[in-house]
Amino acid sequence: MLHAIVMAGGSGTRFWPASRAALPKQLLPLAGDRTLLEDTVARLEGLVPPDRTLVVTSARLLDAARRQLPGIPSACLVGEPCKRDTAPCIGLAALLVSRADPDATMAVMPSDHVIRPAETFRDAIRQAARLVEQHPGRLVTFGIRPTYPAESFGYIQQGTPLSGGPDEAPAHVVAAFREKPPASVAAEYVAAGTYLWNAGIFVWKAATILEALAERQPECLTRLEAIAAAWDGPDRDRVFAEEFAAIKGISIDYAVLEHARDVAVIEAPFGWDDLGGWSAVARQRGTDQSGNTVVGRHLGIDSSGTIVHAADGHLVVTMGLVDMLVVHTPDATLVASRDREEAVRKVVTELESRGWVEFL
Amino acid sequence: MLHAIVMAGGSGTRFWPASRAALPKQLLPLAGDRTLLEDTVARLEGLVPPDRTLVVTSARLLDAARRQLPGIPSACLVGEPCKRDTAPCIGLAALLVSRADPDATMAVMPSDHVIRPAETFRDAIRQAARLVEQHPGRLVTFGIRPTYPAESFGYIQQGTPLSGGPDEAPAHVVAAFREKPPASVAAEYVAAGTYLWNAGIFVWKAATILEALAERQPECLTRLEAIAAAWDGPDRDRVFAEEFAAIKGISIDYAVLEHARDVAVIEAPFGWDDLGGWSAVARQRGTDQSGNTVVGRHLGIDSSGTIVHAADGHLVVTMGLVDMLVVHTPDATLVASRDREEAVRKVVTELESRGWVEFL
Asked: What pTM does this model have?
């Protein structure tokens, strides 16, 4: 059966002060009325039932995630005691879903991307599941056709085409995974037309990924197995905390995908945006007549190209602003030139270095 | 004896959202740690005792004024039931101080200007009081040497010099009062060197101003006398409300000064700023190494020439800002280009027209 694994442990700093350590990007309604996590789970409706949807987040975000996902059974929400990147997260999820369903197929996905329309996404996951059924040992990834030579994504090189149905998205054998490239290399990739951004969405058998981990990350798997063995007993929290902390953090790409023999990539037929910053938010939300993107209560006088994001009820008045960013929260406000959007994360670094931890 | 009359009923809109209908400029600590009203009263120390300091504000600001001025006897705080400009305010004050001191001399002053140093101010008031003692029917005003051709002030033309002591400020007979002039006329005034800004600070006998009101504004004075007659009885509030509301609002300049025969002007020897907007605040407070003026908690990254004013505890981060204004309050935030400072009052007009009265 198909299971969904929603990875919701991210802690981005690009949306400070809207995003915080205790309220990261995926828990915010950045692209619409629902949070990105809510959207991610809603997108699965009709594809996998809630009791086959495993949401893995960090322990300190567990309550918030639970509040946002009242339809997901409590047992399907997992809070990691510490951050260890994607391989341990996915390995543990594989063990957990395998217990009741040894032949489980997993669709693994981040929770902080905008993906539309949902039906196209579900069709693409179904296509991936078929590719796995054809070759049970296969790992299927999704690639995004690049729109610019991004340095912030890994790339997947398309190899031999795989035959597919008339309504199916293009699928290929993966020729190679490429780490985040410098701009010049990224430009070559884009020009070549055969490189896709790695979207971090995967479909495979739980058994397949566990075999790969056994081969490539045996210590990691041993510790994950100890956690899974204690899962339904009184020592779960202690074992989870101890064993998970002892695992070396590593991404599933480095740990498994780059070494795997049978990997396919589907060129995503759906719209995708990883919401890398406020301009991406504006792209998703659109602009008003003045070219401003507004969430909250705003009075703009001679203001254009400006993004305003304000907490409930607070009034933001802008006057004579062009291409600015104003993010208001109850305890902190950021005002920045939009051309400095990439530097928002520096604010978090600076706050850390000053010890102003109450704002992190 | 000398009495101080502090006029604290103003309701400026240039400092929105820091200033509000319920918290106007004079009640804010704009120029330093103390509010302008607190500074104004503190400036009188050694000149007039608290029980000869009458603070006239509007009724709805009375509690706030009382909290800021714990040293002033409650009986010396007057809350006008409605706004009627300076002539009724000063006329009522003259009646009230005359009751126990028929020969009272009044030093009348606004509460929302920055005046430094205090000792020079006190010396100047003493000089004015001497000019009044020499000619008991004389009205003494203070003029500020103009630093630019302001259109927002009235001007006082200096006439014949009055002889004075070696340490005294220049004093002249007033040749004429001039209403707020257009820029070209203001420029002529400045070039002439014999015109001063009208600072709205006056010294005179209570009896003199009451005689002038009897001649020029007899109905106003009759109503003020009715209020004063009821002042110590059970009907004070009702009579104050009814009679004061029935008075036509008019400034003391139009009502009396422009028609008076014996008016002198002292060129103010003290530093003076009417704090017409945020740039004046920056001028008074000075700037940090980046050229920013900050009240509150601020982290500036590549920001200069920017004024930040934030409510207690709130953090304002600015990044890539040049010559901007960021004013944060618990329920509203203004972000504006500093070259739009003069338009801040338009914000208030716009809020009124939208019916967003909770932010006024």
From this structure: 0.90
